[in-house]
Amino acid sequence: MSKSDKSKSNSGKTKKKADRKKDGKEMSSQPSVTEDSDQKTTWYSDGLRFECTQCGDCCSGEPGYVWVEEAEIAAMATELDMPIDAFERKFIRNLGFDKSLIEYSDGDCILLDPKTRKCTVYGARPIQCRTWPFWDSNLNERKDWKATCEVCPGAGKGKLYTFDQIEAARKQKSV
Ligand code: SF4
User: Fold this and answer.
1) Which positions ≥6 away from 43 have C-beta within 8 Å?
2) Which tens digits make up the pLDDT trace of 13-54?
3) Atom of ligand 1 nearest to the CA of 54
4) Burial code of 122-141, b = ≥16 C-beta within 10 A, e = fewer?
5) pLDDT one-digit tens code per residue, 130-152
6) Is this model's pTM higher than 0.85 or not?
7) How does pLDDT run across 62-73, given as a tens digit for each residue?
8) Among candidates 100, 94, 31, which has minimal Cα distance to 67?
9) Counting atoms of ligand 1 from 1, which one is nearest the CA of 1?
């Protein structure tokens, strides 16, 4: 799952990097969580709750991007027992120097099983999907997390993640 700018749409996709800059969602608007956050002053210092309901909404919805690196592509290809080049031809789109998973015209991720609504590479899903909803863009301010809870039925409920666990996820990739 998880394309971005998911906190504002209904998915875990990201907007194109250029669009994010234009919207002010990269660089200057995210400093409070892109640097080493101080637990004492961070609004989520007591942790946040999240438990995925497996609804699949974050793998669909408005158009967006699941950015992937070579190692992530290789892991997904292995998961599907496919050669990397065949996997890339079938599932990856090139956007300048960046690569993203292809999605269908209705916004579904190409790796989302249309019948079961489950991820077909779940065990090797990309970092962007793996770290949802603990993304910079969702954690920047309390209102961003509130917006995330409105689009993801698992956010704000269930298992309590500590500040350190949230930070460990957030720092894996800037989304
Ligand atoms: S509960 Fe949230 S994280 Fe889980 S599948 Fe639904 S939208 Fe995605």
Assistant:
1) 141, 142
2) 764 433 433 333 333 333 456 567 788 889 999 999 999 998
3) 5
4) eebbbbbbbbbbbbbbbbbe
5) 999 999 999 999 999 999 999 99
6) no
7) 889 999 999 999
8) 100
9) 8
CA atoms within 13 A on the CB side of 5: 18
User: Going by CA atoms, what residue is nearest to atom 8 of ligand 1?
Assistant: 58
Q: What gap in Å lies between CA 59 and CA 57, rounded to an integer?
A: 5
Give residue 4's pLDDT band: very low, low, confident or very high (50, 70, 90): low
**Nearest residue CA, atom 2 of ligand 1?**
152
Residues with CB under 6 A from ligand 1: 1, 52-58, 132, 152-154
Q: What atom of ligand 1 comes closest to residue 151's alpha carbon?
A: 7
- Report the separation in Å between the CA atom of 51 and the middle of ligand 1, taken as the mean of its atom positions: 8
